[in-house]
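Model it.
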Amino acid sequence: MVLGPFDGIDPGTLVLLAVLFVVAESISTLVHRGKTGISPSSSASLAAVVLVGPVGAAIVGFASCLIFRRQDLVKRLFNGGQFAFAGYAAGHVFQMLGGGVGVPDEDAFPWIVLPFAVAVLAYSLLNSLLVAGLLWCLGAVRIQRPRRVMWRPLATLELSSLGYGMLGLFIAAIWGAVGPFAVLLVLIPLFIARWAFDQYVSQQRAHDSTLATLCQAVETKDYYTRGHCMRVAKAAGMIADELGMSAERVQTMRYAGMLHDIGKLGVPTKILQKAGKLTEDEFAAIQLHPMRGYEIVREIDFLDEALAGIMHHHERMDGGGYPMGLAGEEIPEAARLVSVADVFDCLTSTRSYRTAWSAEDAIIELRRCAGTQFDPRMVEALVRAVDREGWEVPDLVEPDEDECVTHHEPEAPAASVRVAGETTRS
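Modeled.
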């Protein structure tokens, strides 16, 4: 930026594009559990590539230092340098392929689309490489052995970025006709789109909060399984991710894991907290909890496939489970997935009557029961996910003085479904 050249750069256009960039970058919306952001600012930066050239695009990108968000100086400078470098490089790519600097006229179309599209790709690639390099230097990511890449969420984000980038050509094209008013023509739809997307994200958070509250209602009946539902939800999400499910289905599997035991709200507390062997009638009441859970939440339309996971997560591959005795592929995929996540957390959790198994021992047991009780595909997906991400065994927290401290896992009749001698009623 210091070296220039600055010939042919209109100061008014440069300032307006910088303002558009800052505003667009400031309204980015966090998605994917609050860790990934989608920002329309690339449209302003790539419009600058056409209207004010590589140096102007670098200046517009460096304006990221002025965004209206709480951010420390180091992050502001890195982001400014990142966008400046990407804009500068994209501007040179655009010119090398025959693109001209300035407002494109009618004769420039459709030939200008090709160099601009390549410039968009270069911009996106450089941004990705710079962020990945930073995360690697900070130790936030590490090089691992080759494995299957989750292309779908990555492709979704990249396509969104490329779509915003191509919008830059629209800005440049109408600049000659309406001048600075082009900024308003772009900003107004962006604000509307951002508001609509925020409503969607808020709705998703409300769904999560509602289901988490239901989980807490279940776990207040049994102190020693507190946190179990959320851990099962985490494991279910890990398995779904490993299987390459879409983001929507991954969320659905998490919902199924969160609510798999919701039917225990309909089971008397004295049965859940009974120390010693259950009678046949008491165990029959326990076996009804999947169907009770389905009845409780079946009117929640966004659960969709999760309902099958809730109702059938105690089915077995050999047909010896409950409530319907389904076998093999008759068992819904969501239920086969939640079953593995459920028992894995049960085995790796500390209870009042035993210490937790290690993740390694739990995996050995799951593999031993694969094909009879569990779907081998789900077991191996969990193994790969745990191998990659690890699994933190929860600590046992003693209950408060006003809570029952004599609780033990009730023994079920001999006909109950067991893993390694334990009743899998978690």
